[in-house]
Amino acid sequence: VGGYGDAAGHAAGYSAALSQAANMLEVVRDQLQSAISVLEQPPPPTLWWGSARREYETAARELASTMHGLRSALAGEAQRQRESAAAMAAADAVAPVGATTAVIPGDFGGVGW
Amino acid sequence: VTTSGASTVDLDGFAAQIFESAGRLDQGCWSARGAALALPDAERQATQSLLEAVAAAQARMTALAGAARDTSVAFTGTERSLESFAVDLLGIVVWLLGPSTATTLALAVTSATRAPVLNETAVSVHPTASKLTQEPRSMEELIGRIPRAGVGNAQVRIEHYGGDEPVYYVFVGGTIDTNIDPTSEAFDMSSNVNAIAGLDAASQRATIEAMREAGITASDHVILVGHSQGGLIAARIAQSEQFHVTDVVTVGAPIHAVPVPAGVRVVAIEHNEDIIPSLSGVAVAGATLGAASSLTVMRSVKGMPAEPGDTLPAHNLSRYVDTARSIDRSADPALRAAAARVTVREERSGTASWWRADRG
């Protein structure tokens, strides 16, 4: 990404990228939920018994708990990205085309808005 | 749990669901990583850090699936053995006594009473047809090339591919005559019982004779593929070390008591409801198959419609072809690696010949 022809275009590009990334994080959240559902289902009663079953269930519970935490963190990040995207879109709407009021450091060539 | 390196994959099992879910999560992570590349620094770093944590959880899930899969082996085998109690009395006897004890006992009784059953005879082999062919590109193609058991049918198919990596594929069919009194059919119950006991079996002699007639020498690279008795014969030939066998692929074959040499990779594909593999014991990780790299693939075909008159539908070769198709679709790394060893990605032409063996 880069090489936007003007500052307004660059802001629009960031805004779109943030929205897209937020959407992808939501996809990962859904897949985590699916994984949690799989991990929370009890093994078939005839499949294991004794310590092997207990070890599996303990590990699956712990992993599901970790995944729940990750889902929350992903939700927070997706929310932040959506807010950033909205803020950029709003700034883009009021800024005069070609105006340069700030410089974004990083990989995008220092083009600002 | 792979105490001797052998492992089992249950295609339709509990572990497969975990594998599948972990696979989807992995794909989602990769897509999200791609989207994150377009973000400003702060958001990109935060996103990548989160995705790394998700990837770590995904890796743990895959490991858990692997453990679940391998731990399930013993119980899959036990369940199937319990099913066999209601299916076949012979299966119970063999399971209780062990395959060698049961067959040796049966042969001792028939020998002592001079009963004209289960006796071995001479066998003759002749080619019935040949044609140009292409090397198998999938497990479905591989299993689909095993000769169908039928009266008068060729029992052995041999394919040869030259070039830089020459190889012979030997496909061996299953039992044709289920009577214990030998007639002209070499792939009969006498051969079955003798092969399970590790004794002289006409079908084994016939297959070896066909291989030699086809020009296979002791140093040629050989891949053996067989259904039912054909799979057992394949394992016995690998055990004999008369040929340079690198891989054995069996479907519905009673091979679990055959001490296949450690250098031979064995892929045993079995339906949970198929009693025939149980005749040589059950698939238990660490206690099955001689080869350290062996892989047993389990699948339940319960509920699949049976054809009229099919007394052992789960043993049907057509169903194993369907299971091979499932293996081709599976993303399980153990299955992918096993399939890659016995199939090719690029087309290669060779010759196929069919061989018929008769007693007498």
SSE diagram, text form:
The complex is a heterodimer of chains A (113) and B (360).
Chain A: H1 7-40, H2 50-94
Helix pairs in contact in A: 1-2
Chain B: E1 7-10, H1 14-36, H2 41-71, H3 73-85, H4 89-97, H5 99-112, E2 123-134, H6 139-144, E3 156-161, E4 167-172, H7 189-196, H8 202-213, E5 221-227, H9 229-240, E6 244-251, E7 265-271, E8 295-299, H10 317-329, H11 333-342, E9 349-359
Parallel strand pairs in B: 1-8, 4-5, 5-6, 6-7, 7-8
Antiparallel strand pairs in B: 2-9, 3-4, 3-9
Helix pairs in contact in B: 1-2, 4-5, 7-9, 8-9
Strand tally of chain A, please?
A: 0
Secondary-structure-based class of chain B equals alpha/beta
| Element string of chain B (H = helix, E = strand) | EHHHHHEHEEHHEHEEEHHE
Strand content of chain B: 15-25%
Beginning-to-end CA distance, first to last residue of chain A: 16 Å
The whole-number mean of residue pLDDT values of chain A reads: 73
Shape of chain A: rod-shaped
N- to C-terminal distance of chain B:
48 Å
Number-wise, the strands of chain B total 9
What ranges of chain A have pLDDT less than 50 throughout 5 or more consecutive residues?
1-5, 95-113
Determine Rg of chain A (CA atoms, Å).
Answer: 22 Å
Largest sheet of chain A: none
Model description:
The complex is a heterodimer of chains A (113) and B (360). With 113 residues, chain A is mainly α. Helices cover 70% and strands 0% of the residues of chain A. Chain A is built from two helices and no strands. Chain A has helices at residues 7-40, 50-94. In chain A, helix 1 packs antiparallel against helix 2. Chain A is rod-shaped. Mean pLDDT of chain A is 73; it is low at 1-5 and 95-113. Chain B has 360 residues and is of the alpha/beta class. In chain B, 42% of the residues lie in helices and 18% in strands. Chain B is built from eleven helices and nine strands. The N and C termini of chain B lie far apart (48 Å). The model of chain B is unreliable at 1-5, 73-93 and 282-288 (pLDDT under 50). The chains are: A mainly alpha (113), B alpha/beta (360).
